[in-house]
Each structure stands twice: as structure tokens, then as C-alpha cells.
């Protein structure tokens, strides 16, 4: 409640912390003072045997440290036992954004001749145009829309409110869905939820993820496309177009600039690819003199 965590996050925390408790119980451990560095290293070894990736192991340790802080606050333990071991170093994975042609193909995949198609087209346009997180999109209400200013009021991480800007295509797609698609999906029970499923309830984040998989196949994309892929693409395309990092940070709703800086690496990689492909002297020429030094 304090962190405004999603039900999915709470379920995962519960499941993975119970996983640890089950492990130590099987080791015959009954009291918290027995949970020391040796036990924790045995747990890490067990996770490795189970085939978990380093990112999954690091996430579990982060959850346990948070759980340990709770135990300290509740005076169950005097010191956080989970600080005895360090998290494994996780390789930094750069996001893989869609190219502009791929994005256009994806946005053109829904059949806008149906209420669901109008909804799905609006979802794709809003995700890409506004750079929303999938939880932010799912939580949108009719009252979130400011049609005159082409803006959305969303609640991001940590229950922080921010304003999301929409381009003209996204604003038109959203208005068309609200006027023609959504009324066909509304059932007897009134709701302010913006994006509705076939039963008239709020569309879940899992449903949005399924839609992305469906339309990426229809568009013929060979990439694993998720709602966050469109968020990555939104940020990368802005930087490629000359947007400054602070503006992108504000539009994404990042609390720290360092979080946004990962997109500069993506944009630089893209620039390098374009340079190597396009510049006449970027690659060795077949007509270049053998052994000639570069100026």
C-alpha cells in the first residue's frame, strides 16, 4: 500500500520470498539468527542450479533485502541478514527499439472496421505517441483525457501524476475509439475505464501484452514486441530527432536522469550503424590503395 505496488508485483514478491523461506526450512533452519552468509550463499547456489538468470537472482536478493528492512522495522531482527551477500553483476542490456518503418507497420496492423480494432489501434497509437507504461495505459479513464490540449493525465510509478502529450494521429485515433468503438464495448455496469474488454471491464495489462504479440505477428515483425518496446521506441526516436535528454526524461516520467541516459546509448548505436552504412569513407573501398594510411 505504501509503495502503491501493482497486484502483479505483490504476487511476485510473495511468491519469491516464500520460495526462500521454503528453502531455508528444508535446510532445518528455524530462527532468523541462523540465516547467515553461508546459508545465503547456499541459496544462491541453489538458484544457479535451478537455471535462473543473473537478473532473476539479483531481483530476488533485492526483494529479500527489502523484506529484511521490514523485519528490522518490526523489531523481529536487529540487523538485515540479507546484506551479508552481494548481488551478481547483471549485464546491461540495451533496449531494442523498433525502426520507424517497423513502427508504422505495427500501427497499421489492427482492423479498424470493428470496435475492438478501433480500440487496439488507439492503444498502439497512444503507447507510441505518449511513451506510456502499460500499467499507465491500463489505468486510464475517460476523465484522463484532455481533448482540447491533446493530453492525458496518467498515474505513474510511486503514484506520481504526470501529463502525457499526444500527437495528432494518436488524438484522432483515441477520439474515434471513444465515439465509435467504446460505446459498442460498454455493458450494463457503467465504468469510467477508457479501454474496455469484450465483457465491458477494464482491459488488463496482460491483455495489452497479448495484443502487442498478435499485431507484431500480423505486421510481420521478427522482434519480440512488448508495450515497453513502444516506450523504448518513443524515447529513441525522439533522441534521433534531436530532442534533448531532459525533455525526454520529463516525457517518460523518469525520476532520475541516469535512467533516461540508457537511451542515449541506443541512439548512439543507431547513429553508428547509419554512419557505417552511409558514409562513403566509413568502410574500406575496393579502389583504395593497399597499405595507404588514413589521413
Fold topology:
Blueprint: H1 7-26, H2 37-49, H3 54-73, H4 100-107, H5 115-130, H6 134-138, E1 145-146, E2 151-155, E3 161-165, H7 168-185, H8 205-218, H9 227-240, H10 245-252, H11 257-260, H12 262-278
Antiparallel strand pairs: 1-2, 2-3
Give structural notes:
By secondary structure, this protein is mainly alpha-helical. The chain has two domains: 7-84, DNA polymerase, domain 1 (Orthogonal Bundle), CATH 1.10.150; 100-275, hpI Integrase, Chain A (Orthogonal Bundle). 53% of the residues lie in helices and 4% in strands. A three-stranded antiparallel beta sheet has the order 1-2-3, with no helix packed on it. It is globular, with a radius of gyration of 24 Å. Mean pLDDT is 85; it is low at 285-295.
Mean pLDDT: 85
* Beta-strand residue percentage: under 5%
What's the name of the CATH homologous superfamily of the largest domain? Intergrase catalytic core
Distance between the termini: 63 Å
Helix amount: 40-55%
Structural class: mainly alpha
Q: Any guess at the CATH architecture of the largest domain?
A: Orthogonal Bundle
Number of strands: 3
Q: How many DSSP helices?
A: 12
Largest sheet: 3 strands, antiparallel
Please give the CATH class of the largest domain.
Mainly Alpha
Low-confidence stretches: 285-295
Q: What topology, given as strand order, has the largest sheet?
A: 1-2-3
Shape: globular
In terms of quaternary structure, what is this?
Answer: single chain
Amino acid at each position: 500500500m505504501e509503495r502503491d505496488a501493482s497486484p502483479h508485483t505483490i504476487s511476485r514478491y510473495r511468491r519469491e520470498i516464500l520460495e526462500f523461506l521454503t528453502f531455508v526450512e528444508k535446510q532445518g533452519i528455524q530462527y532468523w539468527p541462523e540465516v547467515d552468509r553461508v546459508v545465503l550463499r547456499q541459496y544462491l547456489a541453489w538458484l544457479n542450479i535451478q537455471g535462473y538468470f543473473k537478473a532473476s537472482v539479483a531481483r530476488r536478493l533485492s526483494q529479500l533485502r527489502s523484506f529484511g528492512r521490514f523485519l528490522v522495522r518490526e523489531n523481529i531482527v536487529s540487523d538485515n541478514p540479507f546484506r551479508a551477500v552481494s548481488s551478481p553483476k547483471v549485464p546491461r542490456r540495451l533496449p531494442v527499439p523498433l525502426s520507424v518503418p517497423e513502427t508504422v507497420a505495427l500501427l497499421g496492423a489492427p482492423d479498424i472496421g470493428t470496435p475492438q480494432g478501433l480500440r487496439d489501434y488507439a492503444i498502439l497509437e497512444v503507447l507510441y505517441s505518449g511513451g506510456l507504461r502499460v500499467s499507465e495505459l491500463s489505468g486510464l479513464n475517460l476523465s484522463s483525457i484532455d481533448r482540447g490540449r491533446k493530453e492525458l493525465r496518467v498515474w505513474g510509478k510511486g503514484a506520481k501524476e504526470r501529463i502525457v502529450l499526444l500527437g495528432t494521429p494518436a488524438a484522432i485515433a483515441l477520439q474515434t475509439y471513444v465515439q465509435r468503438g467504446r460505446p459498442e464495448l460498454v455493458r450494463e455496469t457503467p465504468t469510467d475505464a477508457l479501454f474496455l474488454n469484450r465483457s465491458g471491464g477494464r482491459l488488463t495489462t496482460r491483455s495489452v501484452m497479448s495484443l502487442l504479440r498478435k499485431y507484431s505477428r500480423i505486421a510481420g515483425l521478427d522482434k519480440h514486441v512488448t508495450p515497453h518496446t513502444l516506450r523504448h521506441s518513443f524515447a529513441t526516436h525522439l533522441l534521433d530527432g534531436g530532442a534533448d535528454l531532459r525533455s525526454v526524461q520529463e516525457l517518460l516520467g523518469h525520476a532520475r536522469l541516469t535512467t533516461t541516459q540508457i537511451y542515449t546509448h541506443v541512439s548512439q548505436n543507431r547513429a553508428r550503424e547509419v554512419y557505417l552504412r552511409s558514409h562513403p569513407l566509413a568502410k574500406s573501398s575496393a579502389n583504395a590503395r593497399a597499405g595507404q594510411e588514413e589521413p
